[in-house]
Amino acid sequence: MELWTDRNVTLWSARGDPVKMSRKISAVVNKADENGVLVGNWTDNFDGGKTPWHWVGSIAILQEYYQTKEPVCFGQCWVFSGVTTTLCRTLGIPVRSVTNFKSAHDNDGSISIDTFVDVSGEPIEDLITEKVWNFHVWNDVWMARPDLPKGYGGWQAIDGTEQEASDGIYRCGPAPLAAIKSGEVYLPYDTPFIFAELNADRIKWKMDEFGDVTKIKLSKNSIGIRISTKLPIGKPVGKKEYFCDDRYREDVTNQYKHPEGSIEERTAVINANQVSTRKGIYHEEGKPMDVQFELLKKETDPYGKDFEISLKITNNSSETRTFSGCIHTSSMFYTGITAKRVKKLVIEKKKIGANKSKELSLKVTFDEYYNKLVDQCHMEMSCMCQVLETNQTYVDQDTFRLIKPDLTIKIPDNGKIGKMMKAEVSFTNPLPCALTDCELTVEGIGLTKTQVLPQSIVPSNQVFMATVDCLPTKAGLRELIGSFNSRELAMVDGSCEIMISK
Predict the structure, then answer these.
(1) What is d(CA 144, CA 176) in angstroms, rounded to the nearest whole number?
(2) Is 413 left (phi over 0), alpha (psi -120 to 50) or beta?
(3) Is the pLDDT of residue 238 over 50?
């Protein structure tokens, strides 16, 4: 711990201030400025270190940092959050890890996510600097805020992931959830950035040949979905096998934002916009055009299977309409950055009769997407269409994920200190190919030290099964965590709980 506690926190009095200490922790968790704990890496090249999904806990990371006196390679947001959780709890600061789906990254202070297209509907990449992460993980810390007016104590958001500099240093928070919820983005620290992460609007602008821009779409409810934290260990009880579902998550969305579309939520967004760098974007929108396009949304599809993307077109006019455009899908990093184009369907001058509807589909096979996926199997689907008779432009995009199987862990309900136990770990390979270079990592505080266990090849559609020895050293309710990784399939995770007696 001496590696970081003395850096720029020279007064002992400052070390008793949770506001200053949590802000300091958010800075030293990442390497960016002070040779901190973790090196961030959001590419597909992890040479010289371990992949972010290799880690199953903070212990191995902090031990390596202590022993080498050098930042550990590599981490992404959930790893930064896990280390932040450990450091805060070590210092006695109550903390929880928070996950936000469809998390915006606003880097210009506009408190909106702006996308620019040309007259043909194609993205103008040089002007698109902001992204929407498929998910992002940060932390909340609980403390009083004597530096702020009454009513802003309680949960405060901090973030150790290196995203944007705050007062010249890559850190974020603490920002009061009460201020974030009401759009009071003038309060410290980094409240505008965190507000945008969960309540920004997505705006599409069309730029003509003279450089003038026109707002063509405003999406009010696509950012900040299912904000949640893990339930305390032991809740719910009576289940030995762990699956990633809502039974193990506490929804905290209402602590961060008002219900989508409510008067309170819109008021908070407009209040925040008044002090942003792009004011006045909430003028009355024009009347809708007479052809309706709908990119049919999806959240998940099974990894290993084919999938389909559909566009529904409805002509609400009394005349035939002609439209052109394209539907395409790409693999993407969870940070919203496109990785590789997978497939594209070109739509050339199709006609649709008056008051008629039709659907167009883009079918993608496993063989077409398999070699183009990156890390967590996130995909982007997008569409651009134009109606020739009215010059109507439609642009839309969405993301979804190819879902991997859960790792099932079975272990007796009860155990004793010093008595060996065996856990059975299993899942079914869903891919039409064998898994190679397989490795199972398990960890459980008070149950076992971190074990990295090489495994044999897992054939297509076959069950993988392994047995792990555990020797409990601490009493109480414990958790065993496992992660399976291979060349073809990574991040197959799971955990289970067990009560250990003396």
Answers:
(1) 10
(2) alpha
(3) no
How many C-beta neighbours within 10 Å does residue 297 have?
11
Catalytic residue among 106, 140, 159, 190: 159
Say which residues have a Cβ less than 8 Å from residue 111's Cβ, sequence separation at least 6.
185, 192, 195, 196, 200, 269, 272, 273, 276, 278
Domain limit, last residue, from 204, 219, 234: 219
Laid out side by side, the sheet with 448-455 consists of: 414-416, 492-501, 476-485, 438-444, 448-455
Residue 268 is assigned to a structural domain of this protein: no
| Rounded Cα gap, residues 28 and 142, in angstroms | 19
Residue 368 domain-assigned (yes or no): yes
Catalytic-labelled residue, pool 54, 73, 114, 136: 136
Pair 312, 296: CB distance under 8 Å: yes
Residue 328 designated active-site: no
433 part of the active site: no
For residue 5, the model assigns a pLDDT of: 45
Q: Answer with the one of 378, 403, 428 that is the final residue of a domain.
A: 403
Q: Which of 471, 468, 462 is nearest to 489 (CA)?
A: 462
Transcribe 37-71 into DSSP letters. Answer: SEEE--SS--TTS--GGG-SSSHHHHHHHHHHSS-
CATH of the domain at 458: 2.60.40.10
| Marked catalytic residue, from 73, 77, 385, 438 | 77
Confidence of residue 283 (pLDDT cuts 50, 70, 90): low
What residues contact residue 424 under an 8 Å CB cut-off, 6+ apart?
A: 409, 410, 411, 465, 466, 467
Minimal CA–CA distance to 311: which of 399, 384, 202, 390? 384
- Residue 201 annotated among the catalytic residues of the structure: no
Mean pLDDT of 346-361: 94
Q: What percent of the chain has pLDDT over 70?
A: 92
Under 8 Å CB-to-CB from 496, ≥6 apart: which residues?
240, 241, 242, 409, 410, 411, 423, 479, 480
